[in-house]
Amino acid sequence: MSTMNVSLPEAMKSFVDEQVSERGYGTSSEYVRELIRKDQQRLQLRSLLLQGGRSAPAAGADKAYFDGLRERVRNASKKAGKAGAKR
Length: 87
Hints:
With 87 residues, the protein is mainly α. Helices cover 74% and strands 0% of the residues.
């Protein structure tokens, strides 16, 4: 693992220290790594949304589509309930 030194104003350092202690991080490095992971996820989601926006439209989501979707959810719930009852 590489090391990176970051200079922060005292107010930001205090904020980081508070987050570490209040949110259960072991170190400030863990907190910063979590922030970076969340930013990476945000950027990935943004990219996927932009790709979707540029893609060709799919089939329309009309009443029949939603009726079929509801039916699939009901069936999946019934199967999950039966599987849980067998345990």
